[in-house]
Protein 1
Amino acid sequence: MTIENQQTIDAIIREMNEILSFGKRAENTLITYRTYVYPFLEYCFEELDKSPYEATEKDVRSFIIAIQADRDLGDRTVNLIISSIHNLFQSVLDIPWNKYKVPFRSFDEFIPFIPAKEELETFISSTPDLKRKAIFAIMFAAGLRVSEACSLHCGDIVMSKKAVRVRPSKRRKERYIGLPDNCFDVIMKYYYSLPYESRRRLTTGSWLFPMKSDPERPVYTNFIIDYIPKAERSLGWEHRLSSHSFRRAFATHNYLDGNMTMEEIQSALGHRNISTTRIYVRQGIAALWPHHSNSINGMSL
């Protein structure tokens, strides 16, 4: 890679970041786009011996075939790559894009695992660390993403409303979700487990779940993600849970139990389109229906 080519790549990445930031894209989106655009730009110079400004859809297809084989990527990831390069072509390189020449991959849809309420109760109640326990309780009680739960501030727990405030994140929506009393109880147990001096220094802007080594930063999501399989093993369970299982369980159980309408679940989850919420619930029902009694049960036939 020549210095001139590297400078071109750096300039393209900077312009792409500037455009995406102007559109107020989430930081995770910026990271994802950079992850796949950067190797494509290198591929143009090193493998195709051409400037990215001269790239074609055929070059994109050859790059995808090469990177998929090299990294053993799934079709969902390939679709992320296509979206990233599509954005690059249109927003930075000003190259026409024919979607039929780089079609998105179709992939099999699998039913996600949705834990039963009894399983969630066992999992959360058996979590010994009160910080993790409070995070799990909030994730299930409010349908939060793990990143949203880990990034809560003390002031986001609104006692007067018995609710949690979720700041704008993935879809730039601020929202309030009601919390039941038992979830508040867990949060308060966690709060009073903190050393007195730590509690005394807390303000509404303090992180609710700070890092132990650096209280000025919230815990990483891996604090929760890496713990889940360990907890399952300690319970003698096979590994089926993910951090997103709690969010999906919130949507599915509240719908099946009649606690919330589809629109209310959409609002709580912060989905922009109700079609996304319907997918969550439909997949959840498909996963849970064997565990729910059939309407014919108890009938005298």
Protein 2
Amino acid sequence: MRVLVVGGYGLIGLEIARRISGAGHDVSCLGRSAKRGQALMPSAVWVEADLAALTRPDSWLPHLASIDVVINAAGALQDGLHDNLVGVQEHAIVALVKACAQAEVKKFIQISAPGAAPETETTFLATKGRADAAVMASELGWTIFRPGLVIAPNAYGAGALLRALAAIPLVQPVLLPNARLQCISIDDVCDAVLRAVGEDLSGQVFDLMESNAHSFEEIVLQVRRWLGFSEPKLVLALPRWIGSGAALLADLAGWFGWRAPFRSTALKVLERNVTGDPSGWAHVAGGPLGTLECALARYPATRQERIFARGHLIFPFLILILAAFWIVSGLLGLTQSADAIRLLTDRSVTLPVATGAVFVGSFVDLLIGAAFLFRGMLRRAVWLSTTVCILYLVAGTILTPDLWADPLGPIVKIVPVIGLALAVAALAEDR
């Protein structure tokens, strides 16, 4: 069969696409970047499109020619600079369902979420719920899966958050330690979807998750052991206000293009628990799904996972340090311009050149600092800052070579700034 996976290089979508392809089906995937998708899964046919723009059935019809099965694995946690939940999770999917009916698609498989309902309190679950309702009201051969906390080798969203929390040395801070969650391995999700492709499971909604729930504290500690980090000296249950403050900062970062895993939506979802009733799928599959322990055992942690966990933990701080460095440097250049100009003219630089260098340099510094704050500008900020640093080193060596003798002087400090920017570039890869 010909299968279209919507959200083809997301955490769940990419693994589903690989499994479906491995089972012998022809797979097409839809994502924001066909180039990125092709790099991740060359065997698939990639369709480049922004879901938020596909809000009419006729926008979808060209992508559904000869398609037998549509699997919707697209989604986002919260609105932000690049994310529009109502557009992506509701309007686009409602239009897709109508287009599938017109194109006579045989099956529609929807990846939803536990607790999804049209009138629930978070936009994430409400838009998922309204899309689910549209699917269930259609005449398609539909199946809806609602996976619990997905454990996978790749780390996006909750998986990345768990790894970062587990990497905190000595102590283990945990917010909402008593929140209850039921987990599932990505392999079990793919098994269920593949079964729905090959069998008639139409008209059914399944919660995909292990039978027993774990506390959030227990899951974090298990992930910590799985990664091979030492047991914490102390487990700290953080008060709710700390989580709210952190979530608000992450919400703000979302409007700069950063998809932080712990935002207000994640906090609200945790508070209401991530649980469900897996008995329906257990009846179909002939037994319960694997536990959290089984899921972690499937993907043994190696040095790469530990490096990722530590890197993901410190990455936001590296960004803020670099942004602050360049912004403060630019502001100091403007507020102390007279001293900077005098420093250059004392070394035989003409006044016009010295004045231009100070003011242009200050504005460039401010531009670089601002660019570091935007996710979409990050790589350009890294290379621009590195280039400017090299120019500063060359110019400083020619015009003020004596400053090299100051161990904490303005020239020596440039070298670690270059190193820090290159470290950020190494950690900056997105999905």
Protein 3
Amino acid sequence: MANVNAVANKKGNVFVRFLGNKNTFTILGLLGCIATLVVGYNIRIRKQISPTLVPYAKQTIEARSVINADMVGNVRVTTGYTSTATTLVTSAQKVVNLRATYKSNIPKGSLFYSDMLKTAAQMPDSAFAGIEDGNTIYSLPVDRTTTFNNSIRAGDYIDLYLSTTEPGTGNLVYAKLIESIKVLAVKDRNGNNILKNFHENGEPSQLLFSVDNDMFELLMLSKYVNSPRVKITPVIRNTQYTKDARETSITNEELKQLILSQRSEKTVG
């Protein structure tokens, strides 16, 4: 029994001396640091290479276009990339219903970055850019019906027809007043542009045109002086009509004189 106790005491003394050795603590400390570094490194590596879903463009999105859900897909990229690309948009919900910036298109397959996207309020109104000297913006009130179920778009060339009743006789008059006039912009009731691929619920409220001062005066007279007897309505044409656009002109001198004569009668009365 004494021998057993002696052996135990001897082992205990050896363990105490081992722990009391400064070199032992140094080695254990180094091993602990190495283990911590290895574990931390592995955790960081796993985070860097673990995939995460981010939105991307399933098709080329034109500048100024509204982005709808059909245009957006999801792709897996490494978490490390999302952390370094600070302007990367990581949620499809933060993309849908925004607009592509007015500066450039978003290419097919591209990821979305914050500088590519704008809200409606952030978009500059290009409708008023590049208007010729001497021209004025004319706004024609419309709705979904008069725009042929929202088929008229900015850049289209259309005709404007006039309907009224002839003074004295009461006969109905309906004829083309202006031909080959370019639609500068299509607006909803809040003044937002309705673009080529605008969502289906876009409700047109006005068509904007750039016209010379004489034509502007004529259109405004028909709108205010003769209202409600006179009505201007847009008439859509085909794609070739836009491609072969002619100079905008008043095509019916009789209608023009009819409007001007009613202005004179209104002024005298």
